[in-house]
């Protein structure tokens, strides 16, 4: 049959798709033949005409599918196939795709497919490292359907990593259902104190006006340390920043930070430049005013203890199989071999000191944010 159509196999598939409406059995049989015998591109196209059972019940077809999947793993076509054929057992491959291409529309599809298995995805979040878990959580938040909210709601109580839990709060706040779950935890006294500021900020940005109003009463945004007299965040964001003055505000904010912290935390203020290429304008304002609530810029720190008894405090800028690279006090980098680490403690607070904005005022903050945005 394939020979009769020469190289125009894709046209044949389009014809079969039309014929299947009136002759489903014959059309499916022809599509299966093409799937088994055609070149890889045509075989993958033929999967659109086959259901999962037609492949799963046929060992030859299953072997063919496995062979076809190998070259497309990590590509959008792979996610399309998993969705179209309702394939199971590819959770790791879908997570890897999300980590590699978090902004791709197929990542939303992949996260939605994962969320359909609540218990399985909860377990996946539990066993993933913080970086991977946060990436998946962020995409689940963008899915925003009931299944993804259920996963986040369930996993929140099983995961202990503070940065991951904070990311879950932000993701839940993107939907009305998730936001109301946060307020329910607050009402019942279950919402952890160290996550309340982040939850309040996230809910204050909700697109659900009713949820924002309810949150303003039950979980109001706290005044930022040293900025109690500043106007509300929406008004701050309306101020026009002067980028030419922003670098001076940056240095002033850094010096302000030096006077508000002690010991090894000194001088973390100037590392604000690291986050300039990561956050939106809203996120930058939040990061400076509420550093411990704005966990997305990865300033949550760690304390590393080595076999020699030395301790280093900083935040991780690189984590490989063999070593960690920390940004430590004063902006220096410290490489630590993992085989000498005996203890690694995550801090619950950002190493960027609070109160940086107090030293530069509202307009200085607007200038600083405008300058930081030029670093993107």
Describe the protein's architecture and organization.
The chain is an alpha+beta fold and about 375 residues long. The chain is about 55% helix and about 10% strand. It starts with 8 loop residues before the first helix and ends with a helix. The chain is built from 19 helices and five strands. Among the domains are: about 70 residues; about 80 residues, no CATH class; about 50 residues, SH3 type barrels (Roll), CATH 2.30.30.100. The protein is elongated, with a radius of gyration of 26 Å. It has a five-stranded antiparallel beta sheet, with no helix packed on it. Strand 1 and strand 2 form a beta hairpin.
pLDDT average, as an integer?
A: 81
Question: Total number of β-strand segments?
Answer: 5
Structural class: alpha+beta
Continuous helix count: 19
Query: Roughly how many Å apart are the termini?
Result: 56 Å
SSE run:
HHHHHHHHHHHHHHHHHHEEEEEH
* Shape call: elongated
